[in-house]
């Protein structure tokens, strides 16, 4: 069995490692020389996305295809490259997963959202994801492809957690009363994708997230406690002092339900809250010899 990943980043690598441990072979699109070397070091076959023949060959061998690359002004680059590659190969995959974002729901003032909630993206990035989901569904229907979209909140895990910011001294605790967001550990994301591969559903949509939305300030304080250091001081929220990306983050507040994924995929997050997830990351870091302090 073969997995093709279009956009070999943090999430794609997590699924690749998970499936390779179970006997899958993995190929992935990479453009830069260093990314090619990184893929080879992981045992992944690199594919140049600009090489139409190579991409069609990789698509022909793939049982599953994961698209992680974000859309741009011209839409989803994975769709633009893969649709003709799949058509040229004549061999269709059993499953195509498209990684979207919970940003498609926009701001709900802290209310819960599910996959049936109306889409109301507030940012350009969110609107592009809405369009990319729509385009993938249309192509899926037109070509007879089993395409599933996954709406993801903030992804964290080893090398991408509050611990890293605390150690660098860049962590902040901005306090905006009532602001919460959902998150998912990268390994829970990978297990959710694996569960979907085992249960393909055309035009499926799933929120993959943990069970407890929480504020960024709360999560940072908890991470500092695990490290045995004082958390950064609380700062009153001031949108004008933030970067555009941070402003977008704090403009939206919602709680995301994962009930559908649990019911239809028989998937349950191993890290139900940020507390279990952070504890597991720290245990892994300590096992690898990384000091659990900011020094």
Q: What would your notes on this structure say?
A:
The model has no long low-confidence stretch (mean pLDDT 95). The protein has eleven helices and 13 strands. The strands form four sheets. Strands 3-2-1-4-5-7-11 form a seven-stranded parallel sheet, sandwiched between helices. Strands 6-13 form a two-stranded parallel ribbon. It has a two-stranded parallel ribbon with strand order 8-10. With 295 residues, it is of the alpha/beta class. It has helices at residues 10-20, 33-41, 52-61, 77-89, 124-143, 162-168, 186-198, 216-227, 244-251, 259-265, 274-287; strands at 2-6, 25-29, 45-47, 64-67, 95-101, 112-113, 147-152, 154-156, 173-175, 183-185, 204-207, 234-236, 255-256. It is globular and about 60 Å long.
List keywords for this structure.
295 residues, alpha/beta, 7-stranded parallel sheet, two-stranded parallel ribbon, 11 helices, 42% helix
């Amino acid at each position: 069995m073969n997995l093709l990943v279009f956009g070999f980043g943090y999430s794609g690598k997590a699924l690749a490692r998970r499936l390779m441990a179970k006997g899958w072979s993995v190929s992935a699109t990479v453009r830069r020389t260093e990314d090619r070397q990184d893929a080879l070091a992981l045992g992944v076959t690199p594919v140049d996305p600009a090489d139409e023949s190579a991409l069609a060959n990789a698509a022909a061998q793939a049982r599953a295809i994961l698209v992680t690359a974000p859309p741009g002004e011209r839409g989803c680059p994975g769709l633009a490259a893969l649709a003709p590659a799949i058509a040229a190969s004549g061999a269709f995959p059993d499953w195509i997963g498209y990684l979207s974002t919970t940003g498609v729901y926009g701001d709900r003032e802290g209310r819960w959202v599910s996959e049936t909630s109306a889409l109301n993206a507030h940012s350009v990035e969110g609107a592009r994801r809405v369009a990319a989901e729509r385009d993938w569904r249309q192509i899926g229907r037109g070509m007879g492809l089993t395409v599933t979209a996954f709406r993801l909140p903030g992804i964290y895990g080893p090398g991408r957690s509050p611990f890293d910011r605390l150690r660098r001294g860049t962590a902040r605790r901005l306090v905006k009363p009532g602001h919460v967001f959902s998150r998912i550990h990268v390994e829970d994301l990978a297990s959710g994708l694996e569960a979907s591969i085992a249960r393909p559903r055309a035009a499926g949509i799933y929120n993959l997230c943990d069970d407890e939305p929480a504020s960024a300030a709360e999560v940072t304080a908890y991470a500092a406690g695990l490290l045995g250091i004082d958390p950064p001081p609380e700062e009153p929220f001031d949108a004008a002092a933030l970067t555009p990306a941070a402003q977008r983050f704090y403009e939206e507040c919602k709680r995301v339900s994962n009930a559908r994924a649990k019911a239809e995929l028989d998937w349950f997050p191993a890290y139900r809250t940020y507390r279990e997830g952070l504890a597991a990351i720290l245990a892994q870091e300590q096992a690898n010899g990384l000091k659990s302090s900011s020094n």
